[in-house]
Amino acid sequence: MSTSLWQRPILLAAASLAVVTVTACGAQAATHPASAPTGISALAHQSDHCGEGGAGGKGGAPGQPGQPGQPGKPGCLSVQDLPDKPKSELTDLDKARIALSVLTGRVTQADAAKKYKISEKEISTWERQILSGDWLGLLDS
After folding, report:
1. How far apart are CA 117 and CA 48, in angstroms?
2. Burial of 134 (0-12, 13-18, 19+ CB in 10 A)
3. Which of 9, 58, 29 shows the shortest CA–CA distance to 38?
4. What's the whole-number mean pLDDT along residues 20-31?
5. What would the DSSP string read from start to end of the chain?
6. Are 91 and 62 in contact (CB under 8 A)?
7. How far apart are CA 49 and CA 1, in angstroms?
8. What whole-number distance in Å separates Cα of residue 25 and Cα of residue 28?
9. Mind listing the pLDDT tens digit for each residue in 81-132?
């Protein structure tokens, strides 16, 4: 990729922004329990308990700390929660969100491809670019 001297800082800033955004989206989309099922079974497992709050803690005696509560369940994401845009209007952040939704098993690759009228191979390319750290490749696609 050939760039002139003035374009490099812009590309580096855009790549840095993509890294921060994708990292934040990935952290938000990640499920916390290590023993939780993944992929399609995770969707079936979570459908009954999406976004439930955790159990509250118990108060302690005066002057003593109480027992901590349990964390809530992660919220559910479906293909309807993804951006409602045609493929030509998808931003780089939208592509990252779609790829991370598929990677975390919250949305199937087939459903996302059908919604945006793109091939599953293109979504796989976005996933691979995120996992390999090819942020400029994601920005160019």
Report:
1. 30
2. middle
3. 29
4. 59
5. ----TTHHHHHHHHHHHHHHHHHHHHHHH----TTS--THHHHHHHTTSTTPPPPP-BPPSTTS--B--PPPPPPP--GGGS----GGG--HHHHHHHHHHHHTTSS-HHHHHHHHT--HHHHHHHHHHHHHT-HHHHHH-
6. no
7. 47
8. 5
9. 788 888 888 888 888 888 888 888 888 899 999 989 999 999 999 999 988 8
Structure tokens at 17: 């922004």
Q: Higher-confidence residue: 135 or 86?
A: 86
- Residue among 124, 132, 133, 134 at smallest CA distance from 103: 124
Helix axes 92-103, 109-116, angle to 10 degrees: 150
CA distance 123 to 33: 26
> Cα–Cα distance between 4 and 11 in angstroms, integer?
11
The length of the chain in residues reads 141
**Both tokens of residue 58?**
């118990």
Q: How far apart are CA 40 and CA 61, in angstroms?
A: 45
